[in-house]
Amino acid sequence: KNEVEQSPQNLTAQEGEFITINCSYSVGISALHWLQQHPGGGIVSLFMLSSGKKKHGRLIATINIQEKHSSLHITASHPRDSAVYICAPNYGGSQGNLIFGKGTKLSVKP
Amino acid sequence: NAGVTQTPKFQVLKTGQSMTLQCAQDMNHEYMSWYRQDPGMGLRLIHYSVGAGITDQGEVPNGYNVSRSTTEDFPLRLLSAAPSQTSVYFCASRLGTVAGPQETQYFGPGTRLLVL
């Protein structure tokens, strides 16, 4: 069974701290997505990675295909970063369906 | 573009009732999908469609039906609601090319369903 594990489950940080969220998956993948779920429930796509590293503003996502591991980093965290961050590997196939992690709930305190 | 829209936002049903959750997208996406989100679990795929007239089952299809008569709409039907179907339901879409695994998915705002 294709599985995905995220850590930590919950994370509390002070404003300005550097945040790291980890994601491990079980078998080879075609791509890996990072998603953000706002406190109001909406889900938005942050990154899609198939190799290496991507950066968007204060967010950085990396993936190590050999280690089957991805990380999401937030630099200079801010209270507005408080959300649930979800890792979703795509194990390929013609449908390209995603498998979702349980999410990491991040709370950034001012 | 409105993106992916879902109605209703919230619904209460009694056990045994049926209802349809609506999902529509205006981005001309071929691929559409329905997920449910339960506490302590990741999003789980219920049904998906790779184009008008084509649907398939996901991980948790029992108790749900779908159809795709147009590219824009992908309704999810609960045939006889059960308390186990209490959940938050998300519809999503993506373009649906051969690059599928690397396409951005767009999510609707979700429908909260409570079955008593």
Beta-strand content estimate of chain A = over 45%
Identify the overall geometry of chain A: globular
Poorly predicted residue ranges of chain A: none
Strand order of the largest sheet of chain A: 1-3-8-7-6
The count of helical stretches of chain B stands at 0
Features:
heterodimer, A: 110 residues, mainly beta, five-stranded antiparallel sheet, five-stranded mixed sheet, 10 strands, 0% helix, 55% strand, B: 116 residues, seven-stranded mixed sheet, four-stranded antiparallel sheet, 47% strand, globular
Task: Write up what this structure looks like.
The complex is a heterodimer of chains A (110) and B (116). In chain A, 0% of the residues lie in helices and 55% in strands. Chain A is an all-beta fold. Chain A starts with a strand and ends with a strand. In chain A, 34% of the residues are buried. The model of chain A has no long low-confidence stretch (mean pLDDT 92). Chain B contains no helices and 11 strands. In chain B, the strands form 2 sheets. In chain B, strands 2, 4, 5, 6, 9, 10 and 11 form a 7-stranded mixed β-sheet that branches. Chain A binds chain B through residues 4, 29-31, 33, 35, 41-45, 48, 50, 86, 88, 90, 92, 94-103, and chain B through 31, 33, 35, 40-45, 48, 50, 56, 58, 88, 90, 92, 94, 100-107, 109-110.
Concise synopsis of the structure shown:
The complex is a heterodimer of chains A (110) and B (116). Chain A has 110 residues and is mostly beta strands. Chain A has strands at 4-7, 10-14, 19-25, 31-37, 43-49, 52-56, 59-64, 69-74, 83-90, 104-109.
Helix-strand blueprint:
The complex is a heterodimer of chains A (110) and B (116).
Chain A: E1 4-7, E2 10-14, E3 19-25, E4 31-37, E5 43-49, E6 52-56, E7 59-64, E8 69-74, E9 83-90, E10 104-109
Parallel strand pairs in A: 2-10
Antiparallel strand pairs in A: 1-3, 3-8, 4-5, 4-9, 6-7, 7-8, 9-10
Chain B: E1 4-7, E2 10-13, E3 19-25, E4 31-37, E5 44-51, E6 54-57, E7 64-66, E8 76-78, E9 87-94, E10 106-107, E11 111-115
Parallel strand pairs in B: 2-11
Antiparallel strand pairs in B: 1-3, 3-8, 4-5, 4-9, 5-6, 7-8, 9-10, 9-11
